Amino acid sequence: MTLTPAERLSAIRIAKVNHAGEYGAIRIYAAQIAISRWFWPKLADRLAELKAHEITHCRLFAQALAERGGRPCRAMYLWSTGGWVLGAASALFGQNMVWTCTEAVEDTVHHHMTDQLTFLRNRDAGLHDLIESIRAEEEGHLSLARQEKTRTTRLTRAFEAVIRGSVEVVIWLSTWGDSTRMRRDLRGAA
User: Fold this and answer.
1) Under a CB-based contact definition with an 8 Å cutoff, are residues 75 and 167 in contact?
2) Rounded distance, CA 180 to CA 164, Å?
């Protein structure tokens, strides 16, 4: 199927934001691992496994972006710095907050990937299949976080809200608002 110029641009923006998001996840895990190595070495080892997945995802999205003629996101510094700060803050508050962070990020990303898959279904089979395969692994991260999270408190709920809001803002900035338009168009088509 031939994409319209607007659909092609949306596919590039999807690959771009997913590449940036995976880079942000790498930075979150890097900060969490650095702090956890001091206090909870076993947690650091588990986080290193998750980080390895994100490194692979980042590489795959970088390839998909290049194949579509796109360039990395202009807001990479937000993903990098924000990811590191978020990872460090969550780790400083303890293991439960690390899993709270993972749950909030993965759940927010899951919703965006669902929208992306719906949009790409009959437009870009290669990118659709890539996102589908990565989403399955990300769902495993979400499931693990929910399993490991020991309690929900006012602090964890507040932290989750900040994380979700921050991720939404950076996604919106990274797609130049395409994420909002895509979600609106998909709801209108349903």
Assistant:
1) no
2) 15
Comparison of pLDDT for 176 and 188, the residue scoring more: 176
What is the pLDDT of the chain when averaged over all its residues? Answer: 91
Pairwise CA distance, residues 153 & 111, whole Å: 24
* Among candidate residues 59, 185, 68, the one with its CA nearest the CA of residue 119: 185
Q: How far apart are CA 68 and CA 154, in angstroms?
A: 44
What's the predicted TM-score (pTM) here?
Answer: 0.90
* Cβ 180 vs Cβ 23: under 8 Å: no
The C-alpha angle with vertex 8 and arms to 63 and 186, in degrees rounded to 5, equals: 110
For residue 98, what pLDDT band results from cuts at 50, 70 and 90?
A: very high
Give the tens place of pLDDT for each residue, 52-72: 999 999 999 999 999 999 999
Which domains does the chain show, CATH number per domain?
Answer: 5-179 (1.20.1260.10)
The answer to whether residues 1 and 126 touch, using CB atoms and an 8 Å cutoff, is no
d(CA 26, CA 64): 18
Confidence of residue 3 (pLDDT cuts 50, 70, 90): confident
CB 148 within 8 A of CB 99: yes
**Which residues have a Cβ under 8 Å from the Cβ of 185 and sit 6 or more positions away?**
119
Provide the pLDDT for residue 184: 67
